[in-house]
Design brief:
With 223 residues, the chain is mainly α. It has 13 helices and no strands. Helices cover 66% and strands 0% of the residues.
């Protein structure tokens, strides 16, 4: 995964001096020893790489990675990825509550949420949304916790509801979800961040945790 981490970024090229691939390797290996229950999981390379670009410091990147994986996003990057799978199902339940027409469309065409939002959750919107917008989202993520991911996802879906509902088949729905992460709505980061706190309406951690419990039990029962 090292060579696939930000290949277009000059600081991650092997010819760079210093080459951040070495720093990334050090952080990921250190974290694997620190948290043996997780070790290394695909997606962590992008998270750690982004932190390194932001902090320019190995130790700070390591502890921020630890905060994300160990506290803010538990079980996202564990071998079974149960936390990640659970939260994708939770988003589906939240869409049923807040954007029911889109939920009905997904159900009618048999589109699983993991097919359209898994990269949103795994990479925390890296390479999905513009860099400046992602940095703003991450500020809120460290400050307010994982519900920010749901706020961002719900805002994207709610804002583009009419566009998504134009889809008439399975591939079309998947394509719509790729397109809603582009354009001026997401590049104008200040107004976008204001929207994520207004568009989805009330979204308490109590509600999210209750849905998590239900969705986790459902996933475990499915084996």
């Amino acid at each position: 995964d090292m060579n696939r981490t930000f290949p277009d970024n000059v600081k991650f090229r092997k010819t760079a001096d210093p080459c951040l691939q070495h720093t990334l390797y050090n952080v990921l290996v250190a974290y694997g020893h620190h948290n043996k229950a997780v070790g290394y999981c695909q997606g962590m390379n992008f998270i750690a790489g982004y932190l390194i670009l932001i902090t320019k410091n190995e130790e700070e990147s390591f502890w921020l990675l630890d905060a994300l994986i160990g506290r803010i996003l538990p079980d996202y990057y564990s071998p079974a990825m149960l936390g990640l799978k659970t939260d994708q199902e939770v988003l589906g339940e939240l869409v049923k509550m807040k954007v029911p027409a889109v939920a009905e469309l997904m159900e009618r065409h048999g589109v699983m949420w993991t097919l359209v939002v898994s990269r949103w959750f795994i990479c925390l919107f890296i390479d999905i949304l513009p860099v400046e917008t992602v940095l703003r989202i991450w500020d809120c993520l460290f400050y307010e916790g994982s519900k920010i991911i749901f706020r961002v996802a719900l805002t994207l879906i709610k804002q583009h509801q009419a566009f998504i509902l134009e889809a008439t088949n399975f591939p079309d729905i998947c394509d719509k979800f790729k397109q809603i992460t582009k354009g001026t709505f997401v590049t104008e980061c200040h107004s976008f961040m204001q929207k994520i706190f207004t568009d989805p309406g009330s979204l308490s951690m109590a509600t999210i945790n209750k849905l998590r419990e239900t969705c986790r039990e459902k996933l475990l029962s499915q084996g």
